[in-house]
Write a structure and sequence with these properties.
Blueprint (H helix, E strand, L loop, with lengths): L1 H24 L2 H25 L4 H21 L3 H9 L2 H6 L4 H8 L2 H20 L12 H25 L4 H15 L11 H7 L5 H12 L3 H36 L7
Helix pairs in contact: 1-6, 2-3, 2-7, 3-7, 3-8, 3-9, 4-8, 7-8, 8-11, 8-12, 11-12
């Protein structure tokens, strides 16, 4: 029990440290006037593409929902930048040298990004939805809130795994950020149905975050059966668990190698 209590204490302090960093970047005014305006513009842009294509409202709303949820996904993936930030701050070697597992610290310190991603996605979805006249089926639409939180956390788990890779190979940080962002946008069904992809690519996309959760959320709006929605949500949860497990396995191994060869240096 003492080990669990210690771990929870580390997670709490790491989260508070990350939240403090976030507060230094945004106030609620700058978040609304800066970040949220960007989110709303991005979601509205793709919804407008649907309208300009001369398609029915279904296409417009398909693009709106997909790109709103993509905000949660991308924000979660950006957690991989945490390792670079710690390196530049000179705190990375100190974290690795501490008795606790690095993944506990990194996984908790940046978890505010999952909260921010879910809040950003939900705000963009409902505000843009109101602007474009999207029907919100009550009370089914309430399911979108926990499902969006699940998507955001799943993507955060994926980002934490990627952070473990960048942990050792810092030169590929920008490459990993770009390819991860583009892959999620391209193959997870954000703008086109999964059936548009080759069967092999559709199968692979099921192991990535966002894909299954997005299907569940679209199912809420389309009136799908509860069993289908819960099934997709369960798959999204399984994906989250899988990527966090991979992060746990990789972080400690890479950190141990960094201790041995001294590659976790200060600064750049």
């Amino acid at each position: 029990m003492s080990a669990i209590a210690t771990t929870l204490t580390i997670m709490r302090h790491a989260f508070r440290a990350g939240l403090s960093d976030y507060r230094s970047m945004y106030t609620w005014k700058s978040w609304l006037a800066g970040w949220f305006v960007r989110v709303l513009a991005q979601v509205s842009f793709f919804a407008l593409i649907g309208e300009r294509l001369g398609s029915d409202e279904r296409t417009t709303f398909y693009l709106l929902v997909g790109n709103a949820l993509a905000v949660a996904a991308v924000t979660g993936v950006f957690s991989l930048n945490a390792t670079s930030a710690e390196r530049w701050a000179g705190t990375l070697p100190l974290l690795v040298a501490s008795p606790s597992s690095p993944v506990i610290v990194f996984g908790s310190r940046g978890s505010y990004l999952a909260v921010d991603g879910a809040l950003s996605a939900l705000s963009g979805l409902f505000v843009a939805g109101a602007i474009f006249g999207m029907e919100l089926p009550w009370p089914r639409v309430l399911l979108v809130v926990p499902l969006t939180m699940l998507v955001a956390y799943s993507c955060y788990c994926f980002g934490t795994f990627l952070a473990g890779i960048v942990f050792r190979f810092r030169d590929i940080n920008s490459f990993v950020v770009l390819t991860s962002y583009m892959t999620i946008m391209a193959v997870c069904g954000v703008n086109v149905p999964l059936t548009y992809y080759p069967e092999a690519l559709e199968w692979i996309s099921r192991f990535l975050p966002l894909t299954n959760g997005l299907l569940a959320i679209r199912g809420v709006f389309d009136g799908d059966a509860a069993s289908a929605i819960l099934g997709d949500a369960a798959l999204e949860a399984a994906v989250a668990i899988g990527w966090m497990t991979a992060a746990l396995l990789s972080f400690n191994r890479l950190a141990s190698r960094g201790r041995r060869d001294g590659s976790l240096d200060y600064g750049a």
